[in-house]
Amino acid sequence: MSKAGFAIFTWALVTGMAMAESSLSTAQAIGMSFLVYAASAQLAALPLIAGDFPLWTIFVTAIIVNLRFVVFSAGIQPYFKNRSFWKRSVLGYLNGDLNFALFMSRFPKYQKDPSHLPFFLGMSLTNWSIWQIGSLTGIFVAGAVPDSWGLGFAGTLALIAILLPMLDQLSARLAALSALLVALLANDLPYKLSIVLAVVVAIFVGIMCDRFIKREGGAT
Amino acid sequence: MSSFEIWAVILGLTVITFITRGFFLLMGERIELSETLQNALRYAPAAALVAIIAPEMFFTEGPNELEINSAYFWGGICSIIAFWLSKSMLLTIILGMLAFTAIRLVLA
Q1: pLDDT tens digits for A15-30?
Q2: Cα separation values, A83 from A78, A109, B18, B93, Å
Q3: Whole-model pTM?
Q4: Most exposed: A193, A202, B13, B78, by fewest CB within 10 Å?
Q5: Are B48 and A199 spatial neighbours (Cβ–Cβ below 8 Å)?
Q6: What is the full DSSP assignment across A178-202?
Q7: A36-62: b or e for each residue (b if 16 or more CB lie within 10 Å)?
């Protein structure tokens, strides 16, 4: 199995276990795996489902967590804009973090090339299959493990492993730090509004840092 | 949450995956994302993740009860250190879980 395939499998395994350990039934965990197919949004939704939060807060949170995909979709738009609507919607659905990175490193600059579509579909459908096998394995393996082991916490750790690579620049680190302070201070706000507030403050802090760094003329 | 509500969440999240991942593909060439907006959006996902992770590490005894003497807090800290040292997602999760389990057994 390729390195990417191995990463997808273990990541799916953890997500599957976290779903099985949450308040989802087995059927719901399987449904979520096959339909939602977005690990960070799935893992982010689990504590909110367990905490009985209103649906709209879960949806707003998922949209924020998924905002990076909106930027990715702009990245692959030039390659597939002439395809039919249903083809574009399937391609978009499969355009997750790793698939996007693999596609863009194979075709960094847009040039007319008939292999865009077969490459994207072959690669992303393979990864989709590896993901589902890992996720299903996680869902069924978790059932054999006692609750007291706290396997669901692996989902939180997986989120930490997604978060940390995003903090590669000073402004991103300060923005995340301000989000942490807001999240701790505003923890008792209803409907997980602390997430929305943390996002707004982090965007403000991040932009201010960028401006300051630009004015000082220094690199990050 | 009732079973019906959870299925509604799952279907809603499915629609959100379709719309966010395909956004500009589905729009065709009608709109483009301005650079200012792209820059602003860069900070949003990390902030949302921080705000979801924080309560799972700091408020494990219940809302308004900040508790750092817990297996969750120290397990999280260990996974952060593991990531710094290894840059590996797998080791981040495995070492974090090992620390979490060891501390859970000690504190129990």
Answers
A1: 999 999 899 999 999 9
A2: 10, 18, 17, 40
A3: 0.77
A4: A193
A5: yes
A6: HHHHHHHHTTTSGGGHHHHHHHHHH
A7: bbbbbbbbbbbbbbeeebeeebbbbbb
Q: Residue length, chain A?
A: 220
Tokens of A120: 């994207």
Could you give the residue ranges of the DSSP H alpha helices within B30-70?
35-41, 44-58
Residue with tokens 């396997």: A151
Q: What angle do CA A143, A144, A147 make, to 5 degrees?
A: 70
The DSSP output letter for A187 is T
Chain B residues in contact with A61 by the CB 8 A cut-off are 48, 52
Residue B32: phi and psi, rounded to 5, are: -125, 150
CA B11 – CA B42 distance, rounded (Å)? 27
B56/A contact by beta carbon, under 8 A: yes
| B55-64 pLDDT, tens digit each | 889 988 777 7
**Considering only CB atoms, which chain A residues are within 8 Å of B25?**
73, 76-77, 80-81, 88-89, 91-92, 95
Q: Are A32 and A151 in contact (CB under 8 A)?
A: no
Q: Is the ipTM of this complex over 0.85?
A: no
Q: CA-CA distance, A38 to A17, in Å (whole number)?
A: 15
**DSSP one-letter code for A109:** S
